[in-house]
Each structure stands twice: as structure tokens, then as C-alpha cells.
Design goal:
mainly alpha; 0% strand
Length: 398
């Protein structure tokens, strides 16, 4: 968390408000595509591998093979429409007609797919410490690269956009390489690569499809406002808003780690009372943690943001305070979401995300055109809180 936070300071100072908006669009579109390229396989792998329900080598080869084949679809699309003006709405003005950035975009998709799949196997083995150390290694590399670019004055904007993306790819490749060696090279030297087969896909897909649908709706719930802001307002305003979002979502990092652990533990634990008690305690702890972190962070933001990111981002402090109203309840609900997933109740997560997505689109279209990034922040609060209330209700009504 600390390394990613420091890395963002150097990156944002290099990019400025307009560049930060373009960076947000670029990665937002990549993360959206990753949902479909991954097909929900990483979460399904945790579920199947944690209980020893299917051969790990088959799960590995089938998930990687299908995901890499699907990457051909965005590759062909970008090749055909790389000069199209509408591409700016999804990848930022920096990427329009810039072949190098489009190629790096596709490489980023490949690396992230491999990281997600390998991370799923680490979680299924409950190797949480190793998984965290690998993530730390990638974050340290990212911080080091951004510091080098900042102090060495390598290129000027928008060239720095290209160099920053290269740093992201290097850190991702290092993260995957070390993770793959530790899991498959050191811990499972006897593992033999097996070819993909239809039977493995049939085992993966019934569970993965609900993960895919739920994650897609959840993504639109959390990130659709990025595209709505860019549609109605400038890329610079989007840069201010996404900085506030990235800062407030630092509060989510600990609950997200807990989410992965809860999912694996619930999937392997057979006693329903033990499952419920563990998640109940974690839910209360994450809620208290979020209240404290948001309160403390909101106060500090009025001093930190202008000092570290520049005066152009001063408005982000007010946006951050508004967003806290939605981050607190959803942070407490993340362990519950993992509980539902671990018990195979993916339809419940799907409905919760659907409620949030509908409210995001509805209130986003009402508030963002007239109230800009403040309207986007209030839209997020309404959406997050409604989703969290749905999760709380279905968890505690037992």
C-alpha cells in the first residue's frame, strides 16, 4: 500500500491533471477487458483447486490457453480502428494513433491475465504470505521506476505516459516471473504441463460464469462513472476525480486482502457456523477500520494533496470526503461478498452488483452532466451504500 501510494505521487506529478485523466481511461479500459479475458477463471480456480476438486495442471493450461486466445479479439479491433476518434473516449487522447501505446496495452493484458491466474493458485494453497510478498516486489519495482523517471527527467508529457507504461509492464513481468517460479518451480517441481481440454472448461464454466457476470456488474458499479465524466466533461476534470478515487480506495486495500483470504477459507471450511463466525468478526473489524481510515485520511488530504500532487488537484480533497460516505459501508461488506462467493452463492453477489450498477448509471446520467465530478462522487455513494446494505441484509437474516 505504501509503495503504490508513493509511486502514484511521482506519476501524477509527471502527468498533471490531463495526463492523469488519460492514464485513468487507459487502465480503466484495460481492467474492463481483463474481466472478459479472464472469464471468471481465477476465482473458479480458487474454488476448484482449494478443495482438490480438479487436477491443477488441467486448470492451469485450460485457463491460460483460452484467455490468451481471447486476447486476439481486442488485438484485431485495435489494429483495425487505432486511428478512430472515438477510441479517445476509452484509451485517452494520448493513445489515439499511438501504435506503441496500443501494443503496450495488449502486452499489459497478457501479463495481468498470467498474474491473476497464478495468484489464484497461490490463494488456493493458502500461501497468502508468499502472494503478498510477490505483490510487494511488483510495487517496489513500480515505485523505483517512477522515481527514476521523475528525477532523471526521462521525456516530457505525453512521452512520459509511454515510459510510465513500460515501468508498469516491467514490474508486472517481474511479479509474474517470481510468482510462477515459487509456485510451480519450487513448490511443485513434479507438475507436468497438460494440454487444455473441453472437460476442464465444462468444470470451470458453471462456476466461472457467475463470477464473470458479478465482476462485470461490479466493475460498472465502481468504474462506469469514469467514462460518464469523460463524456460530459474534460479529461483534466477526470484526472482530479480519479486521483480522489485512487486515494480513497487505498482504504480498500486491506479489505481486499481479507476478501481473498475469506474466499479461500470459506471454500475449504466445512462447518457453516465457523464460516459465519469468522466472517462476522472480520466484517465488524473492516467497518471500524474503514471509519478510522476515512476520517483520518480526509483530514490529512487538505494538506497532503496540494503538497504532494500540486495545487491543480486541490479539489480532490472535497471529492474524497464525499466518497468516504460510500467507501465505509462497502469496505465492511467485502468480507461478506467473499463469504457468498466461497459458499457458491454467486447469484447473490450478482444481484448486489446489479443494484449498484443500475443506480450508478441512473444517478450518473442525472447528476454528472450538471454537477460534474461532485455529482459523480454522490452517485458512487448512493451505489456503494445500496450494494452494501443488500449484502448486510442477506448475510445477517440467517
Amino acid at each position: 500500500m505504501v509503495c503504490n501510494f508513493l509511486a502514484s505521487i511521482f506519476l501524477v506529478r509527471m502527468l498533471g491533471t490531463t495526463g492523469q485523466g488519460g492514464w485513468a481511461l487507459y487502465l480503466n479500459s484495460a481492467q474492463f477487458l481483463l474481466l472478459f479475458l479472464g472469464m471468471g477463471f481465477p476465482s473458479a480456480i480458487v474454488y476448484l483447486a482449494a478443495g482438490g476438486k480438479w487436477l491443477k495442471a488441467k486448470l492451469l493450461s485450460t485457463s491460460i490457453g483460452l484467455s490468451l486466445v481471447l486476447i486476439l479479439i481486442p488485438a484485431i479491433f485495435l489494429f483495425l480502428f487505432h486511428n478512430h476518434s472515438e477510441l479517445e473516449m476509452f484509451l485517452g487522447r494520448e493513445s489515439q494513433g499511438h501504435r506503441a501505446l496500443l501494443i503496450l496495452f495488449l502486452i499489459y493484458l497478457v501479463i495481468q491475465i498470467l498474474i491473476q491466474i497464478n495468484g489464484a493458485f497461490l490463494q488456493s494453497e493458502q500461501l497468502f504470505t508468499i502472494h503478498s510478498v510477490i505483490n510487494l516486489l511488483g510495487s517496489v519495482c513500480l515505485l523505483s521506476g517512477n522515481v527514476f523517471l521523475y528525477y532523471a527527467h526521462i521525456g516530457t508529457y505525453p512521452e512520459v505516459f509511454l515510459y510510465a507504461m513500460i515501468v508498469v509492464l516491467i514490474s508486472g513481468a517481474l511479479q509474474f516471473g517470481v510468482g510462477f517460479y515459487l509456485l510451480w518451480g519450487k513448490l511443485y517441481r513434479t507438475l507436468q504441463w497438460e494440454s487444455s481440454d473441453w472437460s476442464t472448461f465444462k468444470v470451470l464454466w458453471p462456476f466461472a460464469k457467475w463470477i464473470l457476470f458479478a465482476n462485470t456488474l461490479q466493475f460498472l458499479n465502481y468504474k462506469a462513472d469514469v467514462w460518464l465524466i469523460r463524456w460530459y466533461h474534460s479529461q483534466a476534470e477526470l484526472g482530479i476525480y480519479t486521483l480522489a478515487v485512487s486515494l480513497i480506495q487505498l482504504v480498500w486495500l486491506l479489505p481486499n486482502v481479507i476478501h481473498g483470504m475469506v474466499y479461500s477459507i470459506v471454500a475449504s471450511e466445512k462447518n457453516p457456523e465457523v464460516q459465519f463466525d469468522k466472517v462476522h468478526k472480520l466484517q465488524k473489524q473492516m467497518l471500524c477500520y474503514a471509519i478510522a481510515a476515512c476520517t483520518f485520511g480526509s483530514i490529512l488530504s487538505f494538506w497532503i494533496i496540494p503538497l504532494w500532487y500540486g495545487g491543480g488537484f486541490r479539489e480532490a480533497s472535497y471529492i474524497l470526503i464525499i466518497l468516504s460516505g460510500g467507501i465505509i459501508p462497502i469496505a465492511g461488506a467485502l468480507p461478506i461478498s467473499a463469504y457468498f462467493a466461497g459458499k457458491g452463492l454467486m447469484k447473490r453477489n450478482l444481484i448486489g452488483s446489479l443494484i449498484g450498477m443500475i443506480l450508478t448509471l441512473l444517478f450518473g446520467l442525472i447528476l454528472i452532466p450538471d454537477f460534474g465530478i461532485s455529482g459523480a462522487a454522490w452517485t458512487s455513494v448512493i451505489s456503494y451504500t445500496s450494494t452494501a446494505i443488500f449484502y448486510y441484509y442477506h448475510f445477517y437474516k440467517r
